[in-house]
Amino acid sequence: MTVRILGAFVCALAFAAPAAAQTPIVIKFSHVVTTDTPKGQGAERFKQLAEERTKGAVKVEIYPNSTLYKDKEEVEMLQLGAVQMLAPSTSKFGPLGVKEYEAFDLPYIFPNEQALRRVQDGPIGQGLFKKLETKGIKGLGYWDNGFKILTSNKPMHGPEDVKGLKFRIQSSKVLEAQFKQLGALPQVLAFSELYQALQTGVVDGQENPPSNITTQKINEVQKHATLTYHGYVGYAVIVNKGFWDGLPADIRTTLEGAIKDATAYEHEIADKQNEKALADIRATGKTEVYTPTEAENAAWRKALAPVQREMASRVGKDLITALNKETEGAPNN
Ligand code: LMR
């Protein structure tokens, strides 16, 4: 009797095994921008490489443009394991308790992309990944978007022109301090709510790289843009740490390679996408694009200089010193 039951059990296992082997590991990758942005394309490239190189053992489901989770909840859902992968702007880690990332929001802290890359790939960027691990999050890499421009329905030549205007910001106390320093009124809103907030006048203006402006059609409801390039939007590519550590070692190694190559691809396309987006803003003709004079750029820098001192206690004086040391001497964009 026992042999028969044992035999039936082994047979059942045999039939089950191939089915079990075919059940892919699913990575849900949620983000808040459209697919035709640097981050959107980076996610698609990661999906392609991960699925190809694991021969289908991993399936990546991408949920773009806030279709699964919006700004506010996406990091929490990652911590809960409801989604496995994100690439939030580094401006959005303050609410999680990793305030140090807000140092990346300090006006003019990065003179150019090469300096930013040194920070991301060096002890500062990798050290911040360590802080994420205390929150159950594993940092896998840094993706680019680009330097931010300002938009509103008023001409903005110098810093005095934004006084009294309501500007949407990401959830960053440094960005809040930045606009308050200019006499503007900052308001945190989810990226998915930005277009409607501008269209209805809930806010007057916003800051973002051109690719985020055209892909959300923000330029259709903003009459003026000023090429201040006063700050940077970049992303931390992150996964749920428990999920990542629980992967079979060979799969994890393959995915590390896919992330590395997707990151190189994403860095390659980001500048081009922003250049094309700025050209599209000009071509659409609904937004007047203004380039500040040298004197006006100096006035923007002077007006925003106090933010570093003011926010040192929040992000860490030593971190600001390290950032300035890492980027000193680099030519401005
Ligand atoms: C924003 O919220 O303005 C951006 O961070 C959106 C994004 O992820 O690029």
UniProtKB/TrEMBL annotation:
CDD domains: PBP2_TRAP_SBP_like_1 (cd13674). Residues 1-21 form the signal peptide. It holds the Pfam family DctP. Gene3D superfamilies: Bacterial extracellular solute-binding protein, family 7 (3.40.190.170). Keywords: Signal, Transport. Belongs to the bacterial solute-binding protein 7 family. This is C4-dicarboxylate-binding protein DctP. It comes from Methylobacterium aerolatum.
